[in-house]
Amino acid sequence: MTDKVVLDHGAGGGMSQELISGTIAGILGDTYIGEMEDSALLELPSMRIAMTTDSFVVDPIFFGNGDIGKIAIAGTVNDLAVSGARPLYLTLAVVLEEGFELEDFRRILRSVRDAARVADVKIVAGDTKVVRRGEADGIFLNTTGVGMLERPFTLSSRTLQTGDQVIVTGFLGDHSIHILSMREGLGFERRVHSDCAVLSHVVADVLDTCGDGVRCIRDITRGGLGTVVNEFAQASAITIELDASALPIRPETAMAADMLGVDVMYLANEGNLCLVVAAEQAEAALKALHAHPECAQAAVVGQVVTAEAGTVRMVDVDGRVSTVELLYGAQLPRLC
Amino acid sequence: MTDKVVLDHGAGGGMSQELISGTIAGILGDTYIGEMEDSALLELPSMRIAMTTDSFVVDPIFFGNGDIGKIAIAGTVNDLAVSGARPLYLTLAVVLEEGFELEDFRRILRSVRDAARVADVKIVAGDTKVVRRGEADGIFLNTTGVGMLERPFTLSSRTLQTGDQVIVTGFLGDHSIHILSMREGLGFERRVHSDCAVLSHVVADVLDTCGDGVRCIRDITRGGLGTVVNEFAQASAITIELDASALPIRPETAMAADMLGVDVMYLANEGNLCLVVAAEQAEAALKALHAHPECAQAAVVGQVVTAEAGTVRMVDVDGRVSTVELLYGAQLPRLC
Questions:
Q1: Which of residues 2-31 of B touch A (CB under 8 A)?
Q2: Is A187 on the interface with B (CB under 8 A)?
């Protein structure tokens, strides 16, 4: 590991994992009980809760169809939801740069409010810090959420079994391409919008429908689908085989990714789920997902097979097999 | 209100209140149930929890006897404790600037671990974002905490009654003077150290000893004692009368504050409590406090009197009375 923080430490790939599992978990030791899942599952004397935290530094702050406020609510609500929890309470902490437009702050707060209404969560505590001009870039948000685990089963990426089906609910990479295109002035942002969305109601529907036929769910954010499925494969020591032709990717997104020299497999979404479900529940899960417009593209994109443990492979339309590696770094900062 | 964010928006005085109660609470509307207390008190089906959030942007990151990691744990743990909760779980979110020294990050994590051990809390979830060089100033932390409300009574600044005694547990302003002196190169930092400390065990002792004889507790942070007592006076619509000669202030702190042109009454501490207790419990509370080295200076500094509602006055050694105003702004960024 280099001796200074580099952008790849925040990219969600192998270097991020190294920083988290090595440096952070290593040093915190007995005071750290975090796992690699999206939320921590906590035992209280008479109930179980889930807890998760996320900071948001997206650049630009306002994009075509959303802003940092919407992402901050959707991101944390989705993290709670995919752990099987019902999101209840969020905190909102703001770091503002001196000179930031108050009207922009108000606009962000309106997005926070609107997204919180959709998610049916309450903002219960806040904090506001102001740093001097040049010491931050406009505004950074942190949302931390608590949800209740009410279901009799637990979702876990450690429970995958041969034959399980892998489902993706939306077009891969759209959020990243939208943001990157705005940042680079490529013009794709008018045709590829961010998928940023609160999906807690979708998760609730699928769990109501399929019960513990759902093994685990993850929202595809930093690191993209490639990272999510690698983490699944490692956690359950199984192989995931993806069908390249089944992956939902917009032609414009593929084209933009090509121009930018990035791989759609590792691009962040902000409203896209990856689910692993028992084979016999796959059809029911898809039906439940298709009832929601945000998940119109939901499709089975792969399955769990018996082969080398902890690996992911992709089969293309001609039957050629390649390995989907865990990316080490990505050099794409501030997508969320 | 000006149309851009200014440093005073983060100073903990009147402008901060305006931003929080006006802009933030105003816009979030029904999605916001935060109060002006240190933690939100939340009802779950079978229990009550407290939840609080804080971002930390202290400059310098390392100071004489502590660092941003220690403050981040102490600050959030203390906020939970003064709400009457037993701190249990914390999240830790990090925003790192590209180029930040990893060894400095490790040193901060060791402080986080050590403070978490003292506080007997677990870090249960984390998040790490990296922004490009120049987009943040080294490192910003956010800690969000959950604690359990196990006691049969609730602490509230709305319950103050005539005759109640106001206690302060440590020297006023030391943390701020230490940090400001380092920043300005004044040299006081060698004689005035930061008071930064985890105080949850102190709060537990006082509550065990005095029960609901304790009306409310607040840790004296941004805005200083002047802000805390004004918020108390407003919340209970009573008058607080402070005895100037009883306020614990180090001569060096007074001298440094004079040189810096700041008022000790409005300076932040990071390990100093203000308690209001029923008169008959004041002696027992002081005894419990004095058992802890961090609270050796604990003293009664004032009382609740019947006069103009919502005001604070100070009586000096010659019997002269002045008003302790709620400060509107303070121009002292990044003390925590």
A1: 2-11, 16, 19-20, 23-24, 27-31
A2: no
A contact residues 277-336, partner B, Cβ 8 Å cutoff: 333-334
Residue A148 with chain B: CB contacts under 8 Å: 44-45
pLDDT digits (tens, 9 = 90+) for A181-204: 999 999 999 999 999 999 999 999
Contact state of A34 with B117 under an 8 Å Cβ cutoff: no
Task: Write the single-letter amino acid at A63.
Answer: F
pLDDT at residue number B284: 98
- The overall average pLDDT reported for chain A is 93
Superfamily, domain A165-323: PurM-like C-terminal domain (3.90.650.10)
Can you say whether the dihedral through the CA atoms of A105, A51, B37, B170 is positive or negative?
negative
Contact state of B45 with A9 under an 8 Å Cβ cutoff: no
H helix count then E strand count, chain B: 9, 14
Residue in A2, A53, A332 to test binding to B, most B beta-carbons within 10 Å = A53
Dihedral over Cα of A34, A35, A40, A46: its sign: negative
A185-211 b/e with 16+ CB inside 10 Å = b?
A: eeebbebbbbbbbbbbebbbbbbebbe
Q: What is the DSSP string of A211-238?
A: GGGEEEEEE--TTHHHHHHHHHHHHHT-
List beta partners, residue B245. Answer: none
* Every domain range in chain A assigned CATH 3.30.1330.10: 38-148
| Element containing residue A116 per DSSP (H, E) | helix A102-119
- A107-147: pLDDT as tens digits: 999 999 999 999 999 999 999 999 999 999 999 999 999 99
Q: Which of B283, B267, B265, B264 lies closest to B275 in space, CA to CA?
A: B283
CATH of B36-148 given 3.30.1330.10, 2.30.40.10, 3.30.750.24, 3.40.50.1970: 3.30.1330.10
What ipTM goes with this model? 0.93
The single residue listed with the structure tokens 């992402």 is: A71
Whether pLDDT at A218 is above 70 = yes
For B250-285, the pLDDT digits (tens) are: 999 999 999 999 999 999 999 999 999 999 999 999
Q: Is A250 helix (H, G, I), strand (E, B) or coil?
A: coil
Cis peptide before B60 (omega within 30 of 0): yes
B164 pLDDT exceeds 70?
Answer: yes
- For A278-318, the pLDDT digits (tens) are 999 999 999 999 999 999 999 999 999 998 999 999 999 99
Q: What is the reported pLDDT for A258?
A: 94
**What is the assigned CATH class of domain A38-148?**
alpha beta
* CA-based max dimension of chain B: 57
Q: Six-digit token pair at A128?
A: 């506001």
Which ranges in chain B are annotated with CATH 3.30.1330.10?
Answer: 36-148
Cβ separation B137–A127 shorter than 8 A: no
Sheet strands side by side (includes A40-44):
A40-44, A47-56, A139-148, A86-97, A122-131
User: Which residues in chain B touch residue A9, judged by CB atoms under 8 angstroms apart?
Assistant: 96, 128, 130
Residue A266, phi then psi, degrees to nearest 5: -115, 10
Give the model's pLDDT for residue B36: 52
Look up tokens 């006691």; give the residue: B151
Tens digit of pLDDT for each residue in B48-84? 899 999 999 999 999 999 999 999 999 999 999 999 9
- For A21, which DSSP code? I
- The segment(s) of chain A belonging to CATH 3.90.650.10 are 165-323
